[in-house]
Write a structure and sequence with these properties.
Length: 138
Amino acid sequence: MIPNTRQALPCEQYLTLLGAAICVFNANNAFIIENILRLNHSNYDWSKLFDLTSGLLLDPVEQTITKKSGQEISTLFAHLVNKRNRIVHSFQITSGVERILATKNRAGVQFHIDSDYLQEFIKENEQLAILLNRLRGF
């Protein structure tokens, strides 16, 4: 149930996708940290890693996960960090008759964060979770 607010919100289905997108990314962020620690616990501290923004985890990922398994996880995680940043640093618009989020790329070109964008983001996070599970040995 959506709380009462005087602010205009997107429809409930869009909000559900948005929440799912944030949750799957957050789960993978924690999974990244778990794998960093599993591969090199002596050089990293859980509390300090969790205090880092996701973008700042890219260096520890390179130093641990990439050394063990190659570039695929690092590349996908960096891509997802960028997409997550576009979601978080977005603004609300009305597109047709519905409210959604919009953002811009680094070149300043604006685009909509529509349901397709969110569903693709969720699927890409599923792929990252599969890769991280393989790295962990499951």
